[in-house]
């Protein structure tokens, strides 16, 4: 039996590298996070062979002092934290102090930095090098400002790790994906990415909407829903995708907690539940959302790569996310278009000017509904040059030797752009009581309230958003005329949504009816289920489910919700107890209840081939205009479609 012994520092660093530096993208992430924490305003990234041959990061941050340069390559040496209190409220991206040491142990690393203190640069820069963990003495170097770090031949002397690396193109794709996440989280930073000596991406400093349009797509920003909700110390802001633009993959899902990209089960479950009523079951939502909260309320030190977090009050976070996003999605009513969109061409009417100030934070940019103007397609022969012109046009304009030329119409800045009204989010607690039939009952939250009976604002000539009905097409679709053109409505899907929302509202205004069981259903349960029943017995009864502890290993179901009286009581109880432990008791029944209500609404809605009169059609259109989420049916399919006069003219080649 071998004896227990202390491992060498070099071997410890290589073991840590196996956890922290999984691939070149992981090493690049550690370097970029250090640059962002240093207050950089511009980042230049150079890669070779997907990052396995070279990773080079140049920033203009505060730099590192000479006497701390070699210390930065030692394990657990950091300027981010100094005590347990600091670890409990981490406010930076990096904090462990083991990233550089781990990278230096499995590569040839060169670190050059020029320290800045009180806006005063040091006399010159200093460089320190490490060859697979062996540090050399610092030496003078030339550098204007900031820090430049180079990582050569990653995992060359560790063949056990190098053989698991994929092709250069695959590793570069992982690096690009990681850079895009950091770019979305920091739109105020200019980022340039080169691979094998060629410029691949360049994002200028701007606002969140402009950065999201460049990375996720213009269509996402133009049709997206701006979210800005707060409650206490919690704030959720950003852009969430329109339900009608669902994707077949989860690639366009970005969620950040205090500026850090994370994947969390509680968060993803809340977002999925918010989209349940409006997104098709085979599609996935797109979003770029930011959650801000007190650093003491989240533990970021639970995963080697810091991609997972643990919330101190996970159920409160879940309810806040579900409430905020549901409120935003409830505004997707039929006939409503994003503000500032030209209904004829789909282009942006007046883009918002980007402030020149550099003191803005990401949450400040989220309040500005920037929309990028459409750029006409370049000639086929010049498409390659057009890409570089888009990325580096500003350098030519700022160059003193470049001739000053008038901007082309496609790139000319708008004159006196109209400002965007600030987003107003109310966090006040609404009135919770109302008189119904002489009895005092709880009012539902605003996002579950009864749809307003007043019609939405009409257009200039008095026409409502969905216009007036012309007739039916094959007993399935309603044709309606508006100022812009033609509206086509799927009457069954539209009426299904209207009935569904009314059923939900009626149920929320009353107590949950309960159906007692003549013979209780007894089943075996583990200690966690027993504890859940003891802790949340009253809340379960409020939801219509009465469960009692029969013995230390058994539970009995004595009553079930009347709406679910035909379901299996044991399976219902087990599922609810399992969900309560994960997401809390408040939303555990909503999914199953909504599934039942959706089925009831489907059978209660008008059927295809049923002839409607013109007044009935107009009545349905007016109902759609005041019903929340009426843009999609209960299954996530669209309920209406717009054909503008411009679209019809193109189809018939009018004016060509």
Describe the structure.
The protein starts with 8 loop residues before the first helix and ends in a 5-residue tail after the last helix. It has 656 residues and is of the alpha+beta class. It is globular, with a radius of gyration of 29 Å. Strands 1, 2, 3, 6, 7, 8, 9, 10 and 11 form a 9-stranded mixed β-sheet that branches. Strands 12-13-16-14-15 form a 5-stranded mixed β-sheet, sandwiched between helices. A 4-stranded antiparallel β-sheet has the order 21-22-23-27. Helix 1 packs across helix 5 and helix 2 (24-37) packs parallel to helix 7. The chain is built from 19 helices and 27 strands.
In short:
This protein has 19 helices and 27 strands. The chain has 656 residues and is α+β, with helices and mostly antiparallel strands. A hairpin with a 2-residue loop joins strand 12 and strand 13 (234-240).
Q: What is the count of helical runs?
A: 19
Gyration radius over CA: 29 Å
Percentage beta strand: 15-25%
Question: How much helix, percentage-wise, in residues?
Answer: 25-40%
Quickly give the structural class. Answer: alpha+beta
Dominant shape? globular
Uncertain ranges: 338-384, 402-455
Distance between the termini: 88 Å
How would a textbook summarize the main sheet? 9 strands, mixed
What is the overall pLDDT average? 77
Based on DSSP secondary structure assignment, what is the total number of beta strands?
27
